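OP here, attaching both records as promised.
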Amino acid sequence: MDMKVLVVGGGGREHAITRALSCNSDTKIFSVMARKNPGIARLAERVLLENETNIEKILPFATNCGVDAAVIGPEAPLEAGIVDRLEAAGIPSLGPTRAAARIETDKAFCRRLMERHGIAGCPEYRVCRDPEEARRFIESYDGDLAVKPIGLTGGKGVRIMGEHVDVAGAVEYAREIGGSVVLEERLVGEEFTLQAFVDGEHLVPMPLVQDHKRAYEGDVGPNTGGMGSYSLQDHMLPFVSRSDYEKALRIMEDTVAAMRAEGTPYRGILYGQFMNTRDGPKVIEFNARFGDPEAMNVLSLLESDFAGIVGRIIEGDLAPSHVRFANKATVCKYLVPDGYPEAPRANEPLTLGDYGDALLYYANVEERDGTLHTLTSRTLAFVGRGETLEEAEAIAEKAASSVSGSVFHRRDIGTPEILEKRCRHMREIA
């Protein structure tokens, strides 16, 4: 069946979404993005270059294109209420309403929801409405805390005591934030990501992924939006037991049920970022969309018709039998401009070499007269797929190393050494 789908967003995540949709030759893709992504543009029937939150411009474009559905990539348009407006115009969407997206856009709402419904995995927390209240709590708390602005931070707004700041630094950061802040117990363990398709009631999980936030090899340097990620051929991670996985999945299911019970049913992609602690998985945060880069791992493995999944979610009859992922490992490696993230060198030319069997996803990059140029954020990513992690890593590394220009990438992502480091860490805290 022919299907016209609007994809909102222009990053690496949205290129992965677009590619997955394009695997069905009967699907026609229309794109809205703030800056032209060369990979998306080549797959789209029509492109509107517009800010993804400018709903007044997006609505007539979607209507004139006659789209049947929309897939929302980034969080900002979700917070702006794009799904509500599209659905009011008769265009169903893969993405939650503004009220349901609060699971990501309002950290206080998320914690209070979990507390009200007795959902497991909620860390100790305190919502403070002014810097003085935050100061008193920080100075009186016996232990380290994570200091989180309540709203969106792009994955970079959290400061952790004992890692980024001391007590005085935490107080100062809360003062810098100025308004409301969430203070949470510092979670110690290994992070993992569990993403799921959700149709408002039913939840179908995707393979587990681990992201790497730190800019430099060895997990050092400033936090970024993510330098790369990996998944294994059994869709698990060696430092996450089957019991821990089941607990994390139950937390996701209970959260979806809580949203439904409160009159804000959740439909779209639910992203659970967990810390696997000695006491089992705890929720670092929920996101109301695919992760970036994690979307590139899972969508590169998707064997089912993505457009068909979108349709099932819209109809509210999604089942596990509708979703199938290849039993392969993946490694995603982002290339970023020299100086990233503090002082990225923009407008530098790039040359792609022979990237072999890797999948190429364009992100924050500009094409001028056939030549790619860096901008100020992550430039492009390669995903290697293989029967083993070693095979997938070799494919991704060869591809990333083939690019010449003022860019760098983390060579250690997906290597046996870094995986063993994760496993050793879990054994140490057990």
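Record two, same layout:
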Amino acid sequence: METVISFIIIFGALVFFHEFGHFLFAKRAGILVREFAIGMGPKILGITKGETLYTLRLLPIGGYVRMAGEDMDTIHIQAGHRIGILLNKEGLAKKIIMNQKNVYPEILFLEVEEADLEKELWIKGYDEEEKLMRIDVARDAVVEENGREIILAPYDRQFDSKTVGKRFMTIFAGPLFNFILAFLIFTALGMMQGIPTFEPVITEVTEESPAAEAGMQNGDLVTSIEGDAIATWDELVESVQNNAGNPLAFEVERDGEPLDFTITPEVAEQSAEEVGVIGVLYQSPMEKDFLGSFAYGAERTIFWFKEIFRLLGMLVTGQFTIDALSGPVGIYKTTEEVAKYGFFTLMSWAGMLSINLGIMNLLPLPALDGGRLMFFIVEALRGKPVDRQKEGMVHFVGIMLLMLLMLVVTWNDIQKYFF
């Protein structure tokens, strides 16, 4: 149960921040956001605030921000349609009823002659006395059809009406907020847990190891090897690994007293290479530093950003296969293992996942944010947008291929973890 809760909280937070990025920049661009959804599939909970419906949906596998002008969102009234209109105090249409199921007093019926509900906002038609009328429509008018209401979206509030730059930032903001979330997580880790100092302090000396035989003890601080100053644990490891079988002169501090040891690293195999080891274990000391926590958050974010790109490169070059990829099942099982090591480790895992989600969405693949961004770049270079039908077809094919990949990865995860 703890794993389920951890998975839902982590995945929910990643999706929320991603979609909040889209939402916030859409609002700043003046785009009407119809729905902010966490999860996919059937709606569990829905709350309307202002012009946006906020929903929680059944399947915790994603989310979306539905903006006006996308996905056949535009409202059209054809000539010959019989509609009902409610007017506000200024005489503007505040509600347009397509199929009247509710009873409204003072409703005006029109047989539509023509209408413009995007740019000039008017409806022209014949009333019950067959008198031709033109009625201006309020910018915040509501259209009701079969009991369902939808806010009218003038063209200047639709996604496609905005400049390439504003559309680009609205889409790019999703992955950007995943990177921001990772930075905040790692910064919070630095504040709560402390920042690793990476000092070359020996945490534990293994029994019957070269270090133990030489007299090294837990808590010794290594200051130099062969006369070269040692400031970090990585420098210690590098010096030892590069001198397998060669005696090394160690200078250490123990309770403030300097000591000298001569230790010969044993030969060990690591990643198909022979390296030197002296038999010591390490756990970095932690220090609390409020301002340093921000630098630590940035350093960890950049580290994982580079690491995930490195792994992607290995996938592209065939250094590991698709079997190494994980879907929701694999992420769940890994979360289960990570949770065993405590809250801080779980937070670090969430930060890494957030960066991974941001990078995956930036890949220039159809249907992903990166694919949409590529079309915006092409539009900026050409000076005109790509044909919407062609772009839609590319994204549709991309969605089908991504769903196929998800099925393959999920099936591999099921076989790996359950069979």
